[in-house]
Specification:
Elements lengths: L1 H17 L2 H34 L19
Amino acid sequence: MFDGLSDWWNDVELWVIQLPFAAQFALVMAVLLPLCVVAAWAIDRVVDYASARFGTSRDERPLGSRAGPGTDS
């Protein structure tokens, strides 16, 4: 199974290397930019909820929650 995956990955690498630089750049941006945005959003959510959970004040809600600090929903 890993041999097939390795061969496929090598074929993809060779294909990308043979593309012109502008096409390589566009392809990398089309793949990496959405992945980085999703990773940054997930890290932001995890840190936000962790800081709200382990912070000093138990009354405050996480910054991403829709309800304000004065509502009990």
